[in-house]
Amino acid sequence: MGYDMIEITKEGAVATIKLDRPKALNALCSQMMAEMADALSTISIDDKIGCVILCGSEKAFAAGADIKEMADLEYLNIYKSDIFSNHEAIVRFRKPIIAAVSGYALGGGCEIAMMCDFIIAADNAKFGQPEINLGVMPGIGGTQRLIRAVGKSKAMDMCLTGRMMNAMEALSSNLVSRVVPLDKLMEEAHAAALKIAGQSQPISMMTKETINASFELTLSQGVRLERQVFQSMFTTEDQKEGMAAFTEKRKPHFKNK
Ligand code: CAA
């Protein structure tokens, strides 16, 4: 599949997916999301790639679902086509994925950033769920993921007033893991992605899966799952290599086995 609305670059074991529809501030139209789902499915079977960065432009990570594409839709069409379901490709993606957010991350933009494993924000980032201003509410997981990230009071504030949160507020609210100067965003995201991609791929995937399971499980179920997955890691060559490298005071060379 050729891509018109996203751009893929690969550097070593890191793939970057850049949302590239600048005239519409990267509004997430159906074509763009189909391209992203296709790219993620291709990257998921590319053994050379250990981590993905999702980014937009300096002005906009993404200003939301495409309002113009949506405006005249009718319930039965969007029910039958299950609108926004292909955005879940990010959730289904099993390797680590970092959102590098600069500029606007609004509506669906904020929602797809939250689907990633963590968010690194530039100091000009603005997050929001402004759907209420359009007579709707978030529809790509915002009502569910925002509350888990920032708690009830702030999630209600954001979704009911539609106001934007700047990068520092997003950091103090735990929506993002770090804030960096705009001109350092991609460098910082790349350094984090390279570090992740240098670890054992299956171990990173299992770690991600186990952390995400905490959203669905009770504490005791989650701790039990963690112990089982931890124990299963002792079947891998990478566990042997990681621990041998520590005792031999050298860097580990993981083989993803
Ligand atoms: N959908 C479609 N087009 C969009 C868009 C969107 N979400 N956001 C921006 N654009 C388009 C504008 O229509 C404009 O196009 P034209 O030049 O053809 O008029 C172009 O991008 C540039 O936008 P602005 O001129 O508005 O730029 P600005 O700098 O003045 O304002 C902004 C920037 C504050 C982000 C403003 O564009 C804005 O408010 N955008 C909409 C944000 C929004 O409401 N997002 C939620 C969408 S709904 C959603 O996501 C639902 C969901 O959860 C499922």
Taken in chain order, the helices and strands follow as: EEHEEHHHEEHEEHHEHEHHHH
Supply Rg. 19 Å
Largest sheet: 6 strands, mixed
Query: Please, how many helices?
Result: 12
Spatial strand sequence of the major β-sheet? 1-2-3-5-7-10
Unreliable sequence segments: none
- Distinct ligands: acetoacetyl-coenzyme A
Seen as an oligomer or otherwise, the chain set is: single chain
Structural class: alpha/beta
Shape call: globular
Characterization of this structure:
The protein has 257 residues and is an alpha/beta fold. 44% of the residues lie in helices and 16% in strands. The protein has a 6-stranded mixed sheet with strand order 1-2-3-5-7-10, sandwiched between helices. A 4-stranded mixed sheet has the order 4-6-8-9. α1 links the parallel β2 (14-19) and β3. α10 (201-213) runs antiparallel to α11. The longest helix is centred in the first third of the chain and has 15 residues, at 30-44. The model has no long low-confidence stretch (mean pLDDT 97). Residues 24-25, 27, 63-68, 84, 104, 106-108, 111, 130-131, 134, 138-140, 142 line the site of acetoacetyl-coenzyme A (CAA).
Notable characteristics:
257 residues; alpha/beta; six-stranded mixed β-sheet; 10 strands; binds acetoacetyl-coenzyme A
Summarize this structure briefly.
The protein has 257 residues and is of the alpha/beta class. The protein has helices at residues 30-44, 67-70, 75-80, 89-92, 108-115, 142-150, 152-161, 167-172, 185-197, 201-213, 219-232, 237-247; strands at residues 6-11, 14-19, 51-55, 60-62, 97-101, 104-106, 118-122, 126-128, 164-166, 178-180.
